[in-house]
Amino acid sequence: MLAIICGAQFLVVIDAVVLMVAGPALAQAFGASERDLQWVFNAYALAFGGLLLLAGRAGDRLGHRRVFAAGAVVFALSSLIGAFSPSMAMLIVARALQGVGAAMLAANALALLTLYFPAGPSRLRALGLFASSATAGVASGTLLGGVLTHYLGWSSVLLINVPLGLVMAWATIRAPGRSEADAASGRGMDWAGAVTATLGFGALTLGIAELAAPTPLTVALLAVAAGLLVAFVVIELRSKAPLLDLRVLAVRPIAVGNALIFVHSAGPLIMLFFGSLYFQQTRGLGALETGLLFLPMALASILGARLAPVVMGRLAPRFTTSLGFVLMALSALALSQLPAAPEPFAVASAVALAIGGFGSSLAFVCLTEAATSSAKAGEAGMISGLVNTALQMGGASVLAVILAVSATAGGDPLGAHAGAFVAAAAILFAAAVAGLVLLPGKASR
Known about the structure:
globular
């Protein structure tokens, strides 16, 4: 079951980035504009970010295995549709369906992990593998996308999901383990909360994605998102079976854990996004070479995830989390100096990325444990959906902020690169301090 859970996390994460490398091939195949290509990514992010809470709560109501397996089927079939799309419009629709399947997978993967592995060393080891599969997915996405697009064409990037998704659905149903028939709740779904949360987080995801080049539509989207999310909070306070029981936010490990997960992306996401731009635009490397340069980050993240339970056995959660954020901040500072670094720049890059990858996994395992260990019976999907929403919204928000900072450098690519990493380091150092002050010595409820 753990192999299935980690495989799903790897698949969901890698599919969010693997098409980035195929962008030029897509544009050539469909005669697409840059705006069209942006919607290929926005459609996925919109459905994924908007449906995480609903997908997690649906697992609580119907059984996490069932929703997870259904999500794998949706993901596989939508990938098949996308690979054979005759037009850009059809591809965008397929990507939105992929986002639906991804939300069903992601929200219930973490819920299944918390259900199958009780709090303690076994869960920490499982969370370590879960975290490393996510980081490895992001780090290897550009490499895999480059290889597949170069040798087999852009459609192969989607076709590879079809057998993987179908096998994952079959294995989920067949995997040994206790039945969820007794754990699943027959209580009704909070549809008013589901609609406002889905539309609110969807509008927020799209609005944040547009912040790099804001227009009046961007402001309208953010205003609509604010209004819908306020309505969502009011509905949840009055609902007898809420989509998100807001009382869980009064539990310090859950509240602080999710808040720090929100800013955690200032580490790995910024390293991958701006590092990729630096390697390809400034240093003139290809997609394949760029992907290889990110392998030390992926390997270090796996090591960090494996060692996290050992570190957490010796240090309190607040110290472990802060250590992870400090390592990511130091990595960002080192990467900000790459334009002035002596040759070979690849060595300096690899060391800095490895330090950041190690710190990222260390912090993420600790924060996920803090955010999930206090979940009561029937709350696993809700807490999982909340964690994934914080991760998704945080990634989009942090990237938008860093892009705005880098834009102040004007047309200077080296200045934009340095400014982005310095801003990321500042956010990460602040998060290290917040973790040290706000996280309790031991998560409890």
